[in-house]
From TrEMBL:
It comes from the Bacteria. It holds the Pfam family Acyl-CoA_dh_N. Belongs to the acyl-CoA dehydrogenase family. It catalyses: glutaryl-CoA + oxidized [electron-transfer flavoprotein] + 2 H(+) = (2E)-butenoyl-CoA + reduced [electron-transfer flavoprotein] + CO2. Coiled coil: none annotated. The keyword Nucleotidyltransferase does not apply. This is glutaryl-CoA dehydrogenase (ETF). Its cofactor is FAD. Its EC number is 1.3.8.6. It is an enzyme of class 1 (oxidoreductase). Residues 25-134 form the Acyl-CoA dehydrogenase/oxidase N-terminal domain. Keywords: FAD, Flavoprotein, Oxidoreductase, Transit peptide. InterPro entries: Acyl-CoA_DH_CS (IPR006089), Acyl-CoA_Oxase/DH_mid-dom (IPR006091), Acyl-CoA_Oxase/DH_mid-dom_sf (IPR046373), AcylCo_DH-like_C (IPR036250), AcylCo_DH/oxidase_C (IPR009075), AcylCoA_DH/ox_N (IPR013786), AcylCoA_DH/ox_N_sf (IPR037069), AcylCoA_DH/oxidase_NM_dom_sf (IPR009100).
Length: 397
C-alpha cells in the first residue's frame, strides 16, 4: 500500500533561543541529519509504517551519514560528541522512532558492548563494518519472563568441556535480530552474567519477528531462541562481568531517547500548528481559538523544557560527569511529556489525525514502545525514589 504523509511546515518557534547554546559544528550536524530525514524518511515513512516494513536499504546510507556508533572513538567510528549524537537522535526520531531505534540498537547497544567490553580482536573485526552499515548487530538482554528484572534471566551459558561455551535460553523484544549478522547475548554463567558475540547463522540460533504490532511498525523486534548454541572461547566479551556490562549499554541508549523523544514531540507540534493555521472552523482558522492556542502553548513549553534538559544532560555527558540517575530524569520526563504532546496534537487534527496522512498518532503509538524499553516509567521512578529517600523499593526484603 502506498501512503503519502503530509509533511509539517517548518514552523517551530525557538522562543528561548536554545539554538544559541549550540556551536556552529553542532548546528551543521543537525542540519545534515535533518536534510537526510526530509529527503529519505519523511516521503516514505507512512507507507513503511502501514506495511510494517523496515527499510534495510537505509542502513548503509546511515553509515555514510555517520550516525552508527557516532559517539564511539576509533575502529572506524565517527567519534562525535554526546550532544552531536543527541541532536542526530532528535532529528531521526522526528522522522520516526523506528529509525532512531535502529541507530540506537546498532550503536548504543551492540557496538557499545563490543567497544567497551570486547577484546581488541573483537573490536577490529566488528566495529568498522558496523559503523559503515555493512554489518548489523542486535542486543539480547530482555527475556519473556525477565524484562525490568534482568538479574533473573534464565538464559544460561555453560563451558562445553573443550574451551568453548554452549548457550540455552530465550530472548524477547530484540530489535533487528532477524536481519542482524551478530547478536550480543547476555547469559547467566556459574560466575555471573557474561556477554557473548553470537553469529546469527550459528546452529541453534533462531530469530522470529514479532508481528501484528500497534507500535514501531517500521522497525523489527524479535523473539530469539538459543538451543544448544555452541561458541568458541573467543566469543566471550572479556571485559563484561555482571549486570554492569549490559547496564552501561542501556544508559547509552537511554541517553539517546532523552533527545529522540523531543524530536517526535516537535514533529507532532509542527504538524498540529500548520494544520491549525489552515483549517477553518466557524469562519476562522483553528489557530485563532483560545483553546487551540492553549494547547499549542503547552506543547511548546514542554518541548523547550525537554530540549533544554536534553542539552544539559548532553553537556554533562561530554564533561564526563553524567550520573545514571540523571539519565533517568531525562528518560522519564521527556518520553512522558512527548506522548502527551503527540496525543494533544492529534486532538487539533480532529478525525484527520487518526490517519497516516499526519504524524502525531504514529509518533504517540511509537512512543508507547519507547516509554517501555530501556527502563519503564516505573523503573526510572524507583531509581529516582531510591536517590531521594536512600531506600531501594525494587525488591521486598
Amino acid at each position: 500500500m502506498t501512503v503519502t504523509a503530509t509533511a509539517p511546515a517548518r514552523v517551530f518557534d525557538d522562543v528561548l533561543n536554545l539554538d544559541t547554546l549550540l556551536t556552529p559544528g553542532e548546528l551543521e550536524l543537525r542540519s545534515t541529519v535533518r536534510d537526510f530525514v526530509d529527503e529519505r524518511i519523511r516521503p516514505n515513512i507512512a507507507g513503511w509504517y502501514e506495511d510494517a516494513h523496515f527499510p534495510l536499504e537505509l542502513v548503509p546510507e546511515l553509515g555514510k551519514l555517520g550516525v552508527l556508533g557516532m559517539h564511539l572513538k576509533g575502529y572506524g567510528c565517527p567519534g562525535r560528541s554526546a550532544v552531536e549524537y543527541g541532536l542526530a537522535a532528535m532529528e531521526l526520531e522526528a522522522g520516526d522512532s523506528g529509525l532512531r531505534t535502529f541507530v540506537s540498537v546498532q550503536g548504543s547497544l551492540a557496538m557499545t558492548a563490543i567497544h567497551k567490553w570486547g577484546s581488541e580482536e573483537q573490536r577490529n573485526e566488528h566495529l568498522p563494518a558496523m559503523a559503515r552499515g555493512e554489518k548489523i548487530g542486535c542486543f539480547g538482554l530482555t527475556e519473556p519472563t525477565a524484562g525490568s528484572d534482568p538479574s533473573s534471566m534464565a538464559t544460561f551459558a555453560a563451558p562445553d568441556g573443550a574451551g568453548g561455551w554452549v548457550i540455552n535460553g530465550a530472548k524477547r523484544w530484540i530489535g533487528l535480530a532477524s536481519v542482524a549478522q551478530i547478536a550480543v547475548i547476555w547469559a547467566n554463567t556459574a560466575e555471573g552474567i557474561r556477554g557473548f558475540i553470537v553469529p546469527t547463522d550459528t546452529p541453534g540460533f533462531t530469530a522470529t519477528p514479532i508481528s501484528a504490532k500497534l507500535s514501531m511498525r517500521a522497525s523489527i523486534q524479535c523473539d530469539i531462541t538459543l538451543d544448544d548454541v555452541r561458541l568458541p572461547a573467543n566469543a566471550l566479551l572479556p571485559g563484561a562481568h555482571g549486570l554492569r556490562g549490559p547496564f552501561s549499554c542501556l544508559n547509552e541508549a537511554r541517553y539517546g531517547i532523552i533527545w529522540g523523544a523531543m524530536g517526535a514531540a516537535r514533529d507532532s507540534y509542527e504538524a498540529a500548528l500548520a494544520y491549525a493555521g489552515d483549517r477553518l472552523q466557524f469562519g476562522k482558522p483553528l489557530a485563532g481559538y483560545q483553546l487551540t492556542q492553549e494547547k499549542l502553548v503547552n506543547m511548546l513549553l514542554e518541548i523547550q523544557k525537554g530540549t533544554l534538559l536534553a542539552l544539559h544532560t548532553g553537556r554533562l555527558k561530554d564533561a564526563g560527569t553524567l550520573e545514571p540517575v540523571q539519565i533517568s530524569v531525562g528518560k522519564l520526563n521527556n518520553v512522558r511529556e512527548a506522548i502527551a504532546i503527540c496525543r494533544e496534537a492529534r486532538t487539533i487534527l480532529g478525525g484527520n489525525g487518526i490517519t497516516l496522512d499526519y504524524s502525531p498518532l504514529r509518533h504517540a503509538n511509537n512512543l508507547e514502545s519507547v516509554r517501555t524499553y530501556e527502563g519503564t516509567d516505573e523503573v526510572h521512578t524507583l531509581i529516582l525514589g531510591q536517590r531521594i529517600t536512600g531506600i531501594s523499593a525494587f525488591r521486598q526484603e
